[in-house]
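Holo prediction — IPE.
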Amino acid sequence: MDGNGRWAKEQGLRRTAGHEEGAKTVRKVTEHCAKIGIKYLTLYAFSTENWSRPKLEVEFLMKLLEKYFISELPVYLQNNIRFKAIGDLSKFSKKLQEIIKKTEKETEKCTGLTQILALNYGSRNEITRALKKLTLNNLEINEHNIQNCLDTATIPDVDLLIRTSGEVRVSNYLLWQIAYAEMFFTKTYWPEFTTHELDDILSDYKKRERRFGGI
Ligand code: IPE
Ligand code: MG
């Protein structure tokens, strides 16, 4: 989800207004994915590198996350959406960590879409933590064991990766899990991303032939 800040600036607004608008897009896209039967939607909400932003913006994002979980819980439940967080949550305030855990717990029985938010997430951090778990438990380092120690252990590999805002890079996101993902890059800023554009991308995705290294 990229382009909140640029979108806001172009509207003559503060960057924070872009994040607020971006949160609305999260809800729209999530509800749409639940409706059309997608099983997993993972959204990059806050990266391990985002702490380097100005203090006020980081504080705003933390407050926005707290508000988001409180307002979204009924939306998750109404739409049978299970929520899961990935990333190193220990860097967040106790309050935010508790809201995240509570949201996971209260939606754990939902069987429709699983919405995963990547929070204080970075792939290098995730892989490093996974390898630490393996050595701590004296387990052999192999692909199967690494996979099972990632935050995404219970989540299938990525089929389709979309990045908004015109940047064509991956920025430390799900590096292990996107090994065979199809990629889409759109110039649309995240606050302006619509379910119609998502549907267009999905129909394009369906036309792609995925060979997973075979022929
Ligand atoms: C993405 O939008 C939202 C977060 C990373 C929280 P940006 O804040 O990166 O927006 P731009 O890239 O500055 O436009
Ligand atoms: Mg950005």
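READOUT: The chain has seven helices and five strands.
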